[in-house]
């Protein structure tokens, strides 16, 4: 896995990818590489219903495009929902179901992307090349759908229309209902028509229930040390808090995954409260990529965080429009730290 020196500790700032470079293989990340409908464990009636609906939807995705109705000028019409919109809080299994759809549709051209990757792909290539890149797809699985600015709204509406016109199916996940996208992040009222147009493409599939990590006993913050020593080994990387902030600001978030490719274990020293919303969102995205790639995480923390990870996010923005992202980050941090503790207990390197 690792292209880093064996039995050594590498600084995170030393493995930055070249500016403008990033990779995606259009498939679910390692954490969801074996996700299936059979391995999903519903814990709420809405999750049972969602599992049945998503399984049925996946079964209807075939190699032959559905017959399309042409408008008088020859353009295919998009009638009614052509995709599923998995809407629910973190920890209810939306991404698991999304990956399960991708794995189930193994006989058709398909792609799995995060929303951030799709937006970046379009910005880097231009919309014409992005359309060409997605040409021929029968299924797009799109994780973490979020309309954060007007430009994304218009780009995504255009790309979705292209996909649906070519007979593709789209399944996406989000912590925000389709109609509420953009609220609190930009003047969504001015783009209500576009947002409603996007929502019209999808059948909403709500998922409720508690964060599954609560069932696993991962609801308490672990006792975090004041300091921790990185143990040399294959793929071991470390960074202090200021170094991490600089790295995350230097890279576009879409490149975080590429940077983490050779990393097996990451030691973060001196985790502390994040003062700005922009830096907080970068950190959230970084933890998402660590989580997706099953990177082992160990860290020490400043005094204020040792008993309450919620103090990671500053009161000035903690309860903003991005509060669900903050809460998901804390939940995933707890799971990552729990996994690292299990590895240590089992005598595995961490």
Secondary-structure map:
Elements (H helix, E strand, L loop, with lengths): L8 E3 L33 H15 L23 E6 L5 H11 L5 E5 H11 L1 H8 L4 E5 L6 H16 L3 E6 L17 H9 L1 E6 L4 H4 L20 E5 H10 L5 H5 L4 E7 L5 H16 L3 E6 L21 H23 L5
Parallel strand pairs: 1-7, 2-5, 2-6, 3-4, 4-5, 7-8, 8-9
Helix pairs in contact: 1-2, 3-4, 4-5, 5-6, 10-11
How would you describe this protein?
By secondary structure, the chain is α/β, with parallel strands linked by helices. Helix 3 packs across helix 4 (127-134). Helices cover 37% and strands 14% of the residues. The longest helix has 23 residues, at 323-345. It has helices at 45-59, 94-104, 115-125, 127-134, 150-165, 192-200, 212-215, 241-250, 256-260, 277-292, 323-345; strands at residues 9-11, 83-88, 110-114, 139-143, 169-174, 202-207, 236-240, 265-271, 296-301. Strands 3-4-5-2-6 form a 5-stranded parallel sheet, sandwiched between helices. It has a 4-stranded parallel sheet with strand order 1-7-8-9.
The share of residues in extended strands comes to 5-15%
List SSEs in N-to-C order: EHEHEHHEHEHEHEHHEHEH
Structural class: alpha/beta
- Poorly predicted spans: 64-78, 343-347
Helical fraction equals 25-40%
Shape: globular
Strand order of the largest sheet: 3-4-5-2-6
* CATH architecture descriptor of the largest domain: 3-Layer(aba) Sandwich
């Amino acid at each position: 896995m690792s292209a880093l020196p064996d039995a050594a500790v590498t600084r995170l700032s030393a493995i930055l990818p070249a500016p403008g470079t990033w990779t995606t293989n259009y498939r679910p990340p390692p954490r969801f590489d074996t996700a299936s409908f059979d391995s999903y464990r519903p814990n709420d009636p809405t999750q049972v219903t969602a599992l049945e609906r998503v399984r049925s939807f996946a079964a209807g995705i075939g190699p032959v495009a559905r017959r399309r109705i042409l408008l008088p000028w020859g353009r295919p019409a998009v009638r009614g929902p052509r995709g599923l919109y998995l809407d629910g809080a973190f920890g209810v299994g939306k991404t698991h179901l999304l990956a399960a759809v991708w794995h189930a549709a193994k006989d058709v051209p398909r792609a799995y992307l995060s929303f951030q990757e799709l937006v970046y792909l379009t910005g880097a290539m231009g919309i014409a090349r992005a359309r060409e890149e997605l040409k021929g797809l029968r299924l797009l699985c799109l994780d973490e759908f979020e309309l954060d600015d007007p430009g994304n709204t218009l780009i995504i509406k255009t790309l979705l229309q292209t996909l649906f016109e070519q007979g593709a199916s789209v399944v996406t996940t989000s912590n925000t209902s389709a109609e509420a996208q953009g609220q609190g992040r930009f003047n969504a009222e001015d783009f209500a028509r576009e947002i409603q147009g996007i929502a019209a493409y999808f059948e909403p599939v709500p998922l409720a229930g508690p964060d599954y990590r609560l069932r696993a006993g991962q609801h308490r913050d672990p006792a975090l040390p004041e300091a921790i020593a990185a143990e040399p080994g294959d793929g071991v990387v470390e960074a202090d808090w200021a170094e991490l902030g600089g790295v995350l600001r230097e890279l576009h978030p879409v490149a975080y995954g590429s940077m983490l490719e050779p990393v097996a274990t990451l030691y973060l020293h001196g985790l502390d409260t994040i003062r700005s919303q922009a830096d907080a969102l970068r950190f959230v995205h970084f933890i998402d990529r660590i989580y997706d790639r099953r990177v082992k995480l160990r860290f020490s923390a400043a005094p204020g965080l040792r008993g309450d990870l919620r103090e990671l996010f500053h009161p000035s923005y903690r309860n903003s429009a991005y509060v669900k992202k903050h809460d998901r980050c804390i939940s995933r941090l707890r799971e990552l730290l729990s996994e690292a503790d299990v590895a240590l207990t089992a005598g595995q390197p961490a």
